[in-house]
Structures are given as C-alpha cells and as structure tokens.
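Recap from last week: sequence in, structure out.
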Amino acid sequence: MRILVTGGCGFIGSFLVKKLVNLGFDVAVLDNLSSGSLANLGDVVDKVRFIEGDVRKYRVVLKALKDVDVVYHLAALTSVQESIRKPMLYHEVNSKGTLNLLKASVENKIKKFIYASSCAVYGNPVKLPISEDHPTNPLSPYAASKLSAEAYCKAYSNAYGLHVLILRLFNVYGPKQSENYAGVIIEFIRRVKNNEPPVIFGDGEQTRDFIYVSDVVEYFTRALNYKLENNFCEIFNIGTGKPITINQLANLVLQVVEKRSLGVVYKEPKKGDIRHSVADISKAVNHLMYVPSCNIEEGLRKMLEFA
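Predicted structure tokens:
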C-alpha cells in the first residue's frame, strides 16, 4: 500500500511518517517546509519519497497523488491568533488546499482520505464532554477554515463516493513540537527553562484536553484499517476525555521542571480562545479500538527529555 502524508515534516506528521515506515508501508511526503523540517524525519528520511510542494498548487498535488492508495492530510496553518490577522491566508492553505487534495484524490482514485481537523470547529461548547454530533460554531478564521475543509470532505464523499475519515484533534503535544504550533505546553516549558514564569491569558480556569502525540499517531494508523460501512464519511474526536485547567497545567510544568518558585503571570485573555474543551472519545475508543495511554505528567517528562 502506498501512502501520502501532507505536512509529513511537521510535528504530528513526522511522527506519523515514522510509524507508517516502521509498519512497512511505502510512504511519500508532501511538505513545503514552511514550518516543518526534513530533520524531523530522523532515520527514516531516506526511506520516504519526499516532494517539496504546496497544497495550494493543484498541479503539484495532482502529481504527488499519482499511484497513491491512501492520503493523510495534515498540512495546515494552526495559529488562532495569526488567523485573525491573516484570514485569507488561512482560507487559501487550510480550505482551498484541502479542496485541491480532494479533487486530486478523486482523479487519482484514492481509496481513503484521512483528514486532520480540529476541536476548534466546535467553538464554546453547549455541553461537556463534546461529542461528534455537538453543534459547530467556529470562533476564529482558523476554526472556520478547518470546518470549511470538513464540509468539502463530506461533499466529496457524498458526490463522488470518496471514503473519508475526519479526525478532530484536541490539544496535541509532544517532543520536537514547534513553537509555531499553537500549543500552550511548549510555551510554558520554554519560559520555565529560561527561568521565566509561565504566562496565562485569562484567569487560568479555562480547560483543555491534552493528548500526547504518540496516542494521536496510534489513532491515525488505526484509522487506516477502519471500514466505512453505512456511509463514506465518518468523524472521530481524538483526545483523552480528561480535562485539565491551564492553572493546573502551569503548576504541573513548574513541578516537573522543579522550579515552583517562578510562579505564574496572568495577562488579558486572547481573542478567539475557547473557554472549556474536553472530548467525548467513546466513539473513537469503540470503533478504532484504542484508549490513550500517556497521562499528562508522563507526557511532560517525555517532552523534557528531548528539550
């Protein structure tokens, strides 16, 4: 089986590529290296077919998908705050880029299209935990671009019979996470290691569902073998189902790094930030048959080993 991973040199994508190569698959990577790096692929870099290219360019995408069986689409811009400043850029990359891949997938008769979406599509929840049938209400251009891409996925599934799995990722973290990636954990660790206190925007009582990157990759690889039966498109929440407040997270980072005396600094809340977020992962657990195994403290210690 031949697999293409877009954004395969990025944070999550590189972990996925390594896993797929180690499982014995023929893997190609499409990445424009705007935030990712070939160095992230480590010792599998010579075992993949690398294509430097942008998902916004249809001819590049069409060529990259030739003779491919499965597409993992992870290439995206991910910053909520940057999307507020540059909404058209986020539309072009996240929405139009996905449309290009879907169109090329139909032309190349792709067997399965697995899309990395985001919990941001839900907005502020009306109920917790958040299940896949929760109303969507994007609060930022980033979230809107991901929801738009999801809509294109569903449309291509309905119109062309393309088999699509949409994985709505909650807050992913792990080693080699880029500071460009929209993650509070990497910023907390960076500041604490520089003897600076973590900065919390708002009162710190907002909650998030943090999931370690290896658990995310396990869900992605299990999605490869998931059989779509009653329809051609399925959506799964990918998280832990265990919320933690940002205050608790900051204190845990200070504890793990053994710098509790630094304390915490509070600033005004950021625009577009969601107040509470925690996934209902029962569907993913039951259908993809996996329960996340890495707790937040263990994950932080793993990150520090690579920092």
